[in-house]
Amino acid sequence: MLYAHTVDVVREAEGALMARLPEGVLMRRAATGLATECIRLLPAVYGARVVLMVGSGDNGGDALYAGAALARRGVAVRALTAGSRVHQEGAAALRAAGGRVRAFAGSDADDSDLFGADLIVDGLVGIGGRGGLREPHAGLAAQAANAPAPVVAVDLPSGIDADTGEVAGYAVRADVTVTFGTHKPGLFVDPGADRAGAVRLVDIGIGPELPGASVLRPQPVDIAGLLPTPGAEADKYRRGVLAVRAGSDRFRGAAVLAVGGALRTGVGMVRYGGPERVVDQVLARWPETVAAVLDPRQSTDLEPGRVAAVVVGPGRGTDPGDADELDAVLDSDVPVLVDADGLTLMSGETGRDLADRVRERSAPTLLTPHAGELARLLGDVTREDVEVRRLEHARRAARSFGCAVLLKGSTTVIAHPDGPSVVNPTGTPLLASAGTGDVLSGAVGALLASGVPVVEAALCGAYLHGRAAELVHGGAPVSASDLLHGLPLALAEVRADG
Ligand SMILES: NC(=O)C1=CN([C@@H]2O[C@H](COP(=O)(O)OP(=O)(O)OC[C@H]3O[C@@H](n4cnc5c(N)ncnc54)[C@H](OP(=O)(O)O)[C@@H]3O)[C@@H](O)[C@H]2O)[C@@H](O)CC1
Ligand SMILES: Nc1ncnc2c1ncn2[C@@H]1O[C@H](COP(=O)(O)OP(=O)(O)O)[C@@H](O)[C@H]1O
Ligand SMILES: [K+]
């Protein structure tokens, strides 16, 4: 598991440790770790050309001290400063080691040092950065982006918000980010995560000072430990029965995809209920389904003992009858996953306040909106607001509805009113195609029915779904149906890694 802490928490932990250590020790540890990573990226050390982009704070100080260490190894180091101040001791150390320090001349002409560099180090701003990069920082960063050398970001790519991953203006795009002490949430969540490249953590000794993390990012081994393994005594009822209330005459495929997502993730039985033509189609693709023609208002097969969890909403419709069905499903005391049309019904546009029904539940509920659905559920933000501050809005929804929320999109994040948020490390933009969300709802539903706790089920389902997309065609486009072939590959990989 990887852990991330917010800036306030990092500063407090660093403060506590610095009070016990001689001045400058933490910065020297950070700079040593940074220099080591730079050396790994250089084809040869002696004679290599490294350019440091240096802002006015301690982030620039780290870059300067690392530059001094490189210069002592025979690297030609040039520091280009931006801003009114420079870390004096760092600049002196670099000069003493044979490096040069000068102010960035501005973006009117290409800087020849930058364009001749073998490696560029981004020490413009770190956790002290606020908002989009100002000038001359932004102009310098833009030139670095056009130069051929790889870019190593110090602590985080300058211009991304450390706590949220928001990019408010221009931001550095790094090949590698060397971060200190702990990860920052903005390195896990897009759009920030997308700018960070490969992230390396350097231990500067603050670990014992840190409280529990606010954001977690699991590794394959963590997923393997969470997945259910049927024991010798298993039977189909003990493995879990999932009820799927998806699909309608208009959207028959949603039912087929959700049922398939569940079956391919592993569950004892899927009970499908829906219109006759949809039942026929589900049975044609998945004959193992226990399917019944169902009027949406007939929800009598949901008593505990008959099903262990319910997925409701994908392609189901938003008619009054569908609202009655959602109401009845929410009345059950088994875990319920609400997706798509179920979320539209919850957002009140149809005149029924089903959100309160979610708040009243004692069994777990999981909402699985995309950014547009989450914006509608929250009511006071736009889709774009959600997209730039995904963690914050998922957490708000979790608090507001008193349940777990899985926010889909470029980074899938899972929030719960209690405990840290979790980000899913797998997936690809190729997932952005119709019907992939239906497969996800089935996959997560299967895990809920198997007895996996709600946050873990959401995480494992999202992980396998993302990995299925990555594995199934080796990077070629995937359709939602393809994910059903990818899920067994993802499960096999996770079990092999675990
Ligand atoms: N604390 C520790 O123990 C350790 C900390 N360490 C390192 O210190 C880093 C934090 O250093 P920090 O606090 O000095 O802040 P930093 O990120 O350099 O930025 C502040 C400067 O940037 C400027 N600035 C702000 N926004 C801007 C913008 N949008 N565009 C342009 N400029 C902007 C701002 O200017 P101002 O707004 O004040 O005019 C100010 O001068 C941390 O990330 C890690 O690398 C490690 O050595 C380990 C030990
Ligand atoms: N840019 C992206 N990068 C990675 N995954 C994405 C991206 N856009 C969408 N996805 C994923 O694709 C799926 C789309 O689900 P959803 O929006 O519900 O589509 P649908 O309703 O058509 O099934 C989700 O799993 C989501 O996380
Ligand atoms: K930086």
Say which molecules are bound, naming each kind only once: ligand NPW, adenosine-5'-diphosphate, potassium ion
Largest sheet: 11 strands, mixed
Mean pLDDT: 95
Briefly note the structural class of the backbone.
alpha/beta
The CATH class of the largest domain is identified as: Alpha Beta
Instruction: Estimate the helix proportion, in percent.
Output: 40-55%
Organism: Nocardiopsis coralli
EC number: 4.2.1.136, 5.1.99.6
Protein name: Bifunctional NAD(P)H-hydrate repair enzyme
Family: Belongs to the NnrD/CARKD family.
List the defining traits of the structure above.
498 residues, alpha/beta, Rossmann fold, UDP-N-acetylmuramoyl-L-alanine:D-glutamate ligase, eleven-stranded mixed sheet, seven-stranded parallel sheet, binds ligand NPW, binds adenosine-5'-diphosphate, binds potassium ion
